[in-house]
User: Fold this.
Amino acid sequence: MNINIIGGGPAGMYFAILMKRAQPSHEITVYERNGPDDTFGWGVVFSGKTLANLRAADEESHAAITASFEAWDNVDVVHRNSKISIHGNSFSGISRLQLLKILHRRCEQLGVQLLFKTEINDLERSRTSCDLFVAADGVNSTARKQYADRFQPTLDVRPNRYIWFGTNKLFHGLTLTFRENNAGVFAAHSYKFNKTTSTFIIECDQQTWEAAGFAEMNEDDTRKYLEAVFAPDLEGQELLSNNSKWINFLLVKNEKWFFDQTLMLGDALHTAHFSIGSGTKLALEDAIALFECFQRSSSVTAALQEFEKTRKPVIAEYQAAAHDSMLWFENARQYMNLSPLELAYVLMTRSGRVSDSDLRRRDALFMEQYETARAK
Ligand SMILES: Cc1cc2nc3c(=O)[nH]c(=O)nc-3n(C[C@H](O)[C@H](O)[C@H](O)COP(=O)(O)OP(=O)(O)OC[C@H]3O[C@@H](n4cnc5c(N)ncnc54)[C@H](O)[C@@H]3O)c2cc1C
Assistant:
């Protein structure tokens, strides 16, 4: 089979790896507009369950990925200068660049053709010259725009602003930090992803963003302002910019997932708010699910039908959990009157998917402290 894939992110490359590994006679080309060393962002997070899925799908890349991991089991909530830790949550962080390099190497080993610095603008020509066309071209997908009448996307631009930094201050857990100043409320999502660096994403509502005057600030002034807001947490370390800019989260859904021999995968197809840290996980698991559909089906059409039928409900459930979490952060200012312990509890249960008994199993001491405080 001749397969064209647009986008050398986690979704596109991982699908290429799984298909080529199972059937070396497939001719697979991945077109990527960036070079092999370009990237955006810093680190990404996986849960323990994602790792088990990666191991089952391809041991070689799983081994390379886990060798580069920083792992932890605590969520830390920082509020009013006090830190509450909740243990029993299995997470790992890896740099996005490192993950992409591992996938590049694995593609090359297996004989997938990776064409860097190759932007595909004439999608129709590429699409009609292969047996399977996969648009894994990210959140701002050209394919989704060009074939909007076929995919029928809904795009929801969310009101909060966020900005993605790195820092050399190491956060040894998934750390959610809340700081208030005269402009409003800022939340930081941070975690280490290698021995020297952490991701540090800052989020605030539109009211805070306007009151702080970010519209008039350049990149450097923005970074300095936010360093001052989170000075007690950064402990003298700088925020590191990687062309970091304020963005509004874009919630992507599509009514139809494929037409003819053409489908979308990963962020092009669906997004889930970063507060549940699962965009890369979903991209990789999409690739596994699609690959498995090809293993079970006798034709491209049957595989794509099967993929849409079986994967859509899984994604809908994730998007529902991520939606609740996103709404929580959009309304964070209304929780600032809570004590650190109460805030930690409300945060842990915000998506409605973690019950008191789940929390008790994960961290009995935390629940005991919370229940004692509540009873007073
Ligand atoms: C602030 C923030 C924090 C995040 N935190 C996490 C986290 O903690 N954990 C997590 O798992 N995920 C996280 N994510 C999400 C994660 O980055 C994405 O969900 C993931 O990268 C999606 O993979 P993908 O392969 O679908 O798309 P991408 O990684 O976006 O890859 C798409 C690729 O397509 C290429 N491309 C686009 N158009 C063309 C074209 N016309 N021709 C050629 N190439 C093209 C692009 O250059 C890009 O390399 C976060 C995202 C944000 C914004």
